[in-house]
UniProtKB/TrEMBL annotation:
Keyword Ligase attributed: yes
Keyword tRNA-binding appears in the UniProt entry: yes
Protein source organism: Candidatus Egerieimonas intestinavium
Entry-linked PROSITE patterns: TRBD (PS50886)
Gene3D superfamilies (UniProt xref): Nucleic acid-binding proteins
Region of interest called Disordered, as start-end residue ranges on this chain: 1-20
Keywords noted in UniProt: Ligase, RNA-binding, tRNA-binding
InterPro entries the UniProt entry points to: NA-bd_OB-fold, tRNA-bd_dom, Tyrosine-tRNA_ligase_regulator
Top-level lineage group: Bacteria
Record's protein name: Methionine--tRNA ligase subunit beta
MF terms in GO: ligase activity; tRNA binding
Database matches in Pfam families: tRNA_bind (PF01588)
Amino acid sequence: MKSIGGAEGKKSDKKEESEPAVKIDLSKVKVEQLFEDAVDFDTFSKSEFRVVKVEACEAVPKSKKLLKFILNDGTDRKRTILSGIHEYYEPEELVGKTCVAITNLPPRKMMGIDSEGMLISAVYEYDGHEGLNLLMLDDSIPAGAKLY
């Protein structure tokens, strides 16, 4: 996994234990335009952002993009979320990570599996290539913590 400094975007087949810090030219970073239509506070407040811990992650068979996450969301049951980020991450590098998910979305079936939320990522363009970083938090934040 690379931070924004790893802006070449998609994962490579090389496995490196430690990567030197990469300086980026911020003039080459492009982000999507912000929405012109404002969302009222009550609508925004309906989204429940929670801290989740990745307990397991695997590629979804017959899918090039989807990863299946088994998450600890601070409740007694495990939450399954599918995310189309396989071109940026290998499943094993995400196990143990602390992330942010929207947890009150209705289940959505993808490839025959119910996805129970959405993981939050940052998407950007750098020097003509798309980049994506899954939002990861400090591991000391407990699963289930609410974000405001």
